């Protein structure tokens, strides 16, 4: 897999495009690489700037939900804050390949 999508700040506009995880063309939702739930914790405020906390990638809803079903927020923040590492996780690759075979509504 390539280096992965470039993280960017959240945007309020609804995005549509190709999901970097499953490659389906659909509506995309913003996934914070460091989940918002942990932004107020001291560890994250000390080690990350506000700009870093706001970075994320756009994913389709099914891939986004699969990530949050697989990992809790703290694990995502500490171990998977890099999009390349997140998208190359073996358990998630299996989910993404399943999503790629699903029909779109």
Set out the fold topology.
Layout: E1 8-9, E2 15-18, E3 25-32, H1 42-47, H2 50-53, E4 55-60, H3 61-70, H4 73-79, H5 83-87, H6 90-100
Antiparallel strand pairs: 1-4, 2-3, 3-4
Write out key terms for the chains shown:
105 residues, alpha+beta, four-stranded antiparallel β-sheet, 6 helices
* Computed Rg: 13 Å
What's the shape? globular
Order of helices and strands: EEEHHEHHHH
Q: How many separate structural domains?
A: 1
Q: What is the first-to-last residue Cα distance?
A: 27 Å
Number of helices: 6
Sheet with most strands: strand arrangement: 1-4-3-2
Let me know the largest β-sheet: 4 strands, antiparallel
Query: How much helicity do the residues have?
Result: 40-55%
Which spans have pLDDT < 50 for at least 5 consecutive residues? Answer: none
Instruction: Please tell me the overall pLDDT.
Output: 84
- The number of strands is 4
Percent range for β-strand residues: 15-25%
Structural class: alpha+beta
Organism: Candidatus Litorirhabdus singularis
Protein name: HNH domain-containing protein
């Amino acid at each position: 897999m390539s280096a992965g999508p470039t993280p960017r700040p959240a945007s309020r506009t609804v995005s549509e495009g190709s999901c970097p995880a499953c490659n389906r063309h659909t509506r995309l939702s913003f996934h914070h690489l460091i989940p918002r739930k942990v932004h107020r914790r001291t560890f994250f405020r000390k080690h990350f700037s506000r700009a870093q906390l706001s970075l994320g990638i756009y994913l389709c809803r099914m891939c986004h939900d699969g990530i949050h079903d697989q990992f809790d927020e703290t694990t995502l923040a500490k171990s998977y804050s890099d999009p390349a590492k997140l998208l190359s996780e073996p358990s998630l690759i299996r989910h993404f390949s399943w999503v790629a075979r699903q029909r779109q509504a």
